[in-house]
Amino acid sequence: MSAGDAPPASAAAETEPALDFDDDSATTSADEASDSESAGDTESDLDSSLGADVQPSTMSLRSSILRYREENGRTYHAYKDGAYLMPNDDLELDRLDLQHNLFLLTMRNRLHLAPLDRENPPQRVLDIGTGTGIWAIDFADNNPTSTVIGVDLSPVQPSYVPPNAYFQIEDIEEHPWTFSQKFDFIHSRMNTAGIRDFPALFRQAYENLNPGGWIEVTDSMPATCDDGTLKEDSALVQCCQLLAKGTAALGTPFGAAAKYKDQLREVGFVNVNEAIFKWPTNEWARHPRHKELGTWSHENAMMGLEALCLAIFTRVLLWPRENVDVLLAEVRNDLKNREIHAYWPIHVVYARKPL
Predict the structure, then answer these.
(1) Which of 64, 122, 282, 311 could form a disulfide with 185 if both were Cys (CB 3.0 to 4.6 A apart)?
(2) What is the CATH number of domain 24-222+255-287+344-352?
(3) Zinc-finger: present as a keyword of the record (predicted)?
């Protein structure tokens, strides 16, 4: 299947982001994508297999991929050890699937905001940091003429996949990329903790997209609020500040999403759009839709808090495990407190390579 035969996607005008809890839409740029492919209501049994782009590997490489690092009661990838500081155990994989459903709720059952052509879907799609592979599998199910390739450092994807979905173990920050053909759509979601050089990643994406192809990058920013109920001395704010310090020391700063728009423009992308959504920390919001988002967001945060913090606090900030546990207990209390009107800003940035 030739990626070069894919027709160009239609252009979307650049818009400035809007973020308003009283408006049920996130931004006008998100609404412009309403004709893009819907995710549907299906929650498929996820799967993975090795695709045509995968090269034969040695026994030692296979051993390093399959051997996990055990630390503080969690397991982590061993291939390129330390490149990504979130665990890859069953608890984290369950959270990733829950988070996928949270994104579907947030984006009204859409898998992306980029205005892809529904009549002529992208022929080749790349999902960076695919995790359990659930996004790639859903996209492949909805677009049977597309070839979808998911890459990750951990072989945690399921065993059965749509025939047009493929997975491979790859360090996406190794340059240059060695895929056999260029792509028409590149997708990255919640990879702040794993990418050390987003401008370099965007340059590689630009070089590996066909003219007219789209990139979409989604990430979370640190918790904040609009009414002063999240105090600077709260455990949640302190935790976010410490995460920012630790991730900055690693070159993966928590909060990198604020720069994605400008970085994509600097690389050469056009039609750069940004939608900003809010994930309430619990059910404090008045609007029923935001309450539902808060329910899912709260569960996502409670499941992921230890996963997000443990390696950074113990490996980078050199905290004793017991001190981490004390802080996280206080953070959980903040996340449960409905008097604190905090939320996680979710930035979705999409852009197009010129024709």
Answers:
(1) 122
(2) 3.40.50.150
(3) no
